Amino acid sequence: MTQEDKKHLKRSFFHSLLAILIFSLYYVAKDRDIVREYFGDVGYDYTIEGFSYFKSDISSDKKKILIFKVDNDYLKENNLSDGNNGIRYNYTPRFVIANILKELDDTIKANNPQNPHYPKSIFIDYMFAYSGDVDGKITKDDQKLIDALNHYAQFYDIYLPTLPNGIFLEKLKLHPNIHFISADVIVNSDDIERGYKPYICQGNKAIPNLSIAISSKDIATNDNFICPMPKTIDFNSYFTYRILYKDMSDEYLFNWNNMTAYSANELNTDKGLITEDFKDSIVLIGADYEASGDSHITPSGRISGIFVVANAIATRYYADGYIKMLNPWISVAIYFTLFMLISFYTPKLLQKMGVKGEPFQYLIVLTFMAFIFYLLSILLLVYTQTWLNWVIPWAIFQFMDGKTLLKEMWHKLLVWIRAINMRYG
Description:
elongated, two-stranded parallel sheet
């Protein structure tokens, strides 16, 4: 081994040990908000951005999620628009949801008249906290919704969001296939919604999140819910309920295979637009227009609440319950191995390729290191549903080699200044 090789090996070994040390410190302090925000969430968000462009099956049995959007097209077609990207009522009238359920039923029957293929379940992403009357009485509009819910619950499970204090519908006698669940998300201190709350508490009763309630019949997991909720929850526990967001390739199609969005306006059977087989599908109904007030900031951009719900359900099936952080010992082994290999062999390879000058070589190494760690993090998420925090070791590598790069450039600058001074001084 040449002296130059020994020099590279010594530097590579030192960088590897330093990366392991910093990761260990991060792992100990990862539950602190400031550590999570600046070292955990940054890496996760960039990984999700890359992950979102990979097409993935929601589950091995081709689970299908169908989304019906109450959007501007629907509002205009049904004379509900206020002409300013909103609805012309103080809230969405209950008859709107009743009508959509009827149109959905008509579509299902039109596609299979002899043997209608009903969905497995339907989630209605509207909060019916109070009745339409200020005195709490059931109005005619309320009754239209109640009758529709009771009627269609004969054919599939219907899920409705509730609150810690409950909603007025829970006090009524409803069909046993009507379930009240939580659809709450976890909003981090930077206002980005990276995950869903696994449950809420109504007194001492735990109300599971929709994604857990729907998937629990297909996925065996150990969700231990304690009421009242613990005041503090560690990072690992919260991380398991993070959402794998997928980018929408256009207005209607996701990079989740078997997830499709339609305007609720397309449920009009006279138009004959929807030919889906609804059998055992999960149907979501929710608002998707600018003034709905249901807009959420996520790692993959701003989206409507119904799409947050869709991605949460898809994540639950895709990850067979939860996404996981890579085992810390495996992380340490990966960091050490990659740092050693890339830091040692890349400069040697560049020299053989005729790339001269350490500053330029370091710049290429930095870029290559970033790409390798980032790609590895995405691929682990895609194929194993585990996440490798690539930001910390990469930042250390940047600091060390960036410092060397600046030192070399400063040395070159001094040599250049000295040469000018000797020539013209």
